[in-house]
Write a structure and sequence with these properties.
single chain; 336 residues; alpha+beta; Peroxisomal Thiolase, Chain A, domain 1; 5-stranded mixed sheet; 10 helices; 14 strands; 31% helix; binds coenzyme A
Length: 336
């Protein structure tokens, strides 16, 4: 699905941003003691030096999401009771019922605001931002709290080296409100998927779910499984394609865009897109070295870091880009 702004409709403004991540650091040197890998290999192949992981006794998707949304509300000068709706993008909800969004809504004092979880893996935050923008533009909602959060450390098999080195935990959140200016907000968006490629990134719960050919996958049942090379090829292509598409469809050049806020999947994937498209360093924020790939938490965390650092301001155009399990990919061109 692709969509451009409906003329005459209201606009949407991001009025607050926040993020949260665990204190606990898992470095490459820690991983060297857990699996057959090395700091040099991980840095060279991924650009990751360390990542944050939750203490599962006290932290999880609920606590990080709650904290990120509370910070976004503070940043907006709002309280939970100002929200009509909360959308939480995650593949690591503690429970399928209730949704983690419902518990977050309760914790921030937003009830009876609507609340639901959205599953689009690493594309989740961009999917949720696009859905929220469309719901506000429909005229039915005035203010929505959007959160992207994953705690993949809770479903990573730390006895297996191909997946365990990549992922970290974090949450990013924005508060979006209705604005009278229809040119503000999401000017162009894509939400796309190719379900035929699901076996390249999946979390099986039962033997029946395991696709033919993957029966001997060493990753334990219930944990994230990934065909790294396939995902790499997909990601490197989609990263470029969605940015090119957003610029071309809107007659924009790279110079018109203040920041490209991109999913942090692998440093080599980011570098390849930068090189092929000619994106300057200062327009692509990178935090994968310190946080790893945080799945649905990545883009929200990046957005918060550029927002808090004052690298983006009212009137700027930005592009959000993500891709991941599903397989899914999404982009969002925003006028702040
Ligand atoms: N430490 C040391 N060696 C490792 C290793 C590790 N953690 N993981 C794999 N290897 C080995 C392999 O066994 C292989 O050895 P071989 O040549 O003797 O067979 C070699 O390194 C190369 O493996 P390969 O899987 O081809 O590495 P790669 O360059 O593709 O890097 C990933 C692996 C996972 C880092 C890379 O494929 C990737 O980043 N893919 C995308 C993942 C992603 O973005 N996922 C989320 C999507 S949102």
């Amino acid at each position: 699905m692709t969509a451009t702004t409906i003329p005459g409709a209201c606009g949407v403004r991001i009025v607050g941003s926040g993020s949260a991540y665990p204190e606990r650091v898992l470095s490459n040197f820690d991983l060297e003691k857990m699996v057959d890998t090395s700091n040099d290999w991980i840095v060279q192949r991924t650009g990751i030096h360390e990542r944050r992981i939750v203490n599962p006794q006290t932290e999880g998707t609920f606590t990080l999401s709650r904290d990120a949304l509370n910070k976004a509300l503070d940043n907006a000068g709002m309280t939970g009771s100002d929200l009509d709706l909360i959308i939480l993008a995650t593949v690591t909800a503690e429970m399928t019922c209730p949704s983690t969004a419902c518990r977050v809504a309760d914790a921030v004092g937003a009830a009876p605001a609507g609340a639901f979880d959205l599953v689009a893996a690493c594309s989740g935050f961009v999917y949720a931002v696009n859905v929220a923008d469309s719901m506000i533009r429909s005229g039915r909602y005035k203010s929505i709290g959007v959160i992207g959060c994953d705690t993949l450390s809770t479903i990573v098999d730390y006895e297996e080296r191909t997946v365990s080195i990549l992922f970290g935990d974090s949450a990013g959140s924005v508060v979006m409100v209705r604005d009278d200016d229809p040119t503000v907000g999401c000017r162009y968006q894509t939400l796309q998927s190719d379900g035929s490629m699901w076996p390249s990134l999946y979390i099986p719960r039962r033997d029946q779910e395991v696709p033919a050919g993957d029966e001997n996958n060493p990753v334990r049942m219930g944990n994230l499984r990934m065909q790294g090379r396939e995902v790499y090829k997909f990601a490197v292509t989609k990263f470029r394609d969605v940015i090119r598409d957003a610029l071309e469809k809107n007659n924009l050049t790279i110079d018109d865009v203040a920041q490209f806020v991109c999913h942090q999947s692998n440093m080599r994937i980011i570098e390849s897109a930068k090189e092929k498209l000619g994106l300057p360093d200062e327009k692509v924020h990178v935090n994968i070295d310190k946080f790893g790939n945080c799945s649905a938490g990545s883009v929200g965390l990046c957005f918060d870091q550029v927002w808090q650092a004052g690298k983006i301001k009212r009137g700027d155009l930005i592009v959000l880009v993500a891709f991941g399990g599903g397989l899914t990919w999404a982009s969002s061109l925003w006028q702040l």
